[in-house]
């Protein structure tokens, strides 16, 4: 049975487990909707087919149902679509369908022994838990995660395997480099000083012989002529540009129209 109010996969039938551990110090008691409390007796793995299994299932005393936690599925990177007659669980990345359930009265059930379940992937393997912890710990690298587990530095992080060849979509997107802008095939200016590009860089790693730490670069968009001024401090920029503007406008006998610096114009 799929349950959106259930925080953990759980069952009351110990015969379903292929492996069961009594190490449940992180799980004291389960509180049901009527505020009754029952004891957690174990934590283990249940095989749902010859290839697939569900990990981190709680064995709960006197529980008469097998509950599949919707929240735990979502934490593993899956989404649940509840329809009038069925429920479809798919991967958030790519939308690939993983398994299907059916509606009986007002309950959504999954029978993993049925072909209608259409089980396509192992949602609950140790590898999936490894990627879950990867996301929980700010997308830390798998090698670091493995060291953390060996040294027992994080409570609950144990008995997990890691796939280093698999890609994390969020990490991949975060490290992608943006494409360069296409080159222009036309001139956007018609005369010198119509548009100036300016940039200030520094402080440099080493101070120059003249005692300068910054570089002030000015490029004319029309002629591509470039002026470079070396400054001791960036507070000198306004004074240097004021002198440059007067000199350039006198030499070219025209006025400065626009200045572009750090993607902004003045």
Structure description:
18% of the residues lie in helices and 30% in strands. With 266 residues, it is of the alpha+beta class. The strands form 4 sheets. Strands 2, 3, 4, 5 and 6 form a 5-stranded mixed β-sheet that branches. Strands 14-13-12-15-16 form a 5-stranded mixed β-sheet, with no helix packed on it. Strand 8 (78-82) and strand 9 (86-91) form a beta hairpin. It starts with a strand and ends with a strand.
Count of domains: 3
Low-confidence residue ranges: 121-127
Using only C-alpha atoms, the radius of gyration works out to: 32 Å
The main pleated sheet reads as: 5 strands, mixed
Rounded mean pLDDT score: 80
Distance between the termini: 63 Å
Précis, in short:
With 266 residues, the chain is α+β, with helices and mostly antiparallel strands. Helices cover 18% and strands 30% of the residues.
Topology of this protein?
Layout: E1 2-3, E2 10-11, E3 17-21, E4 29-31, E5 37-47, E6 53-60, E7 68-69, H1 70-75, E8 78-82, E9 86-91, E10 97-104, E11 107-109, H2 126-136, H3 142-150, H4 169-174, E12 195-201, E13 214-220, E14 226-231, H5 237-252, E15 258-261, E16 264-265
Parallel strand pairs: 1-7, 2-6, 12-15
Antiparallel strand pairs: 3-5, 4-5, 5-6, 8-9, 9-10, 10-11, 12-13, 13-14, 15-16
């Amino acid at each position: 049975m799929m349950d959106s109010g259930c925080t953990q996969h759980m069952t009351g039938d110990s015969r379903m487990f292929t492996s069961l551990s009594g190490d449940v110090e992180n799980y004291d008691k389960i509180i049901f909707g009527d505020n009754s409390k029952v004891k957690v007796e174990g934590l283990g793995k249940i095989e749902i087919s010859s290839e697939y299994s569900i990990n981190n299932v709680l064995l709960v005393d006197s529980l008469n149902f097998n509950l599949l936690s919707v929240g735990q599925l979502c934490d593993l990177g899956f989404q649940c679509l509840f329809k009038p007659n069925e429920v479809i669980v798919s991967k958030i990345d790519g939308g690939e369908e993983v398994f299907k359930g059916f509606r009986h009265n007002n309950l959504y059930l999954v029978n993993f022994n049925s072909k209608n379940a259409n089980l396509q992937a192992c949602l609950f393997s140790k590898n999936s838990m490894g990627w879950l912890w990867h996301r929980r710990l700010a997308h830390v690298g798998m090698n670091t995660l493995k060291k953390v587990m060996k040294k027992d530095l994080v409570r609950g992080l144990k008995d997990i395997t890691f796939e280093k060849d698999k890609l994390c979509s969020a990490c991949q997107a975060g490290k992608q480099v943006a494409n360069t802008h296409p080159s222009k095939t036309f001139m956007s200016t018609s005369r010198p000083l119509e548009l100036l590009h300016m940039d200030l860089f520094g402080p440099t790693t080493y101070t120059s012989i003249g005692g300068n730490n910054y570089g002030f670069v000015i490029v004319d968009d029309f002629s591509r002529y470039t002026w470079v001024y070396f400054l001791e401090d960036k507070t000198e920029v306004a004074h240097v540009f004021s002198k440059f503007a007067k000199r350039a406008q006198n030499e070219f006998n025209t006025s400065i129209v626009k200045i572009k610096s750090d993607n902004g114009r003045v």
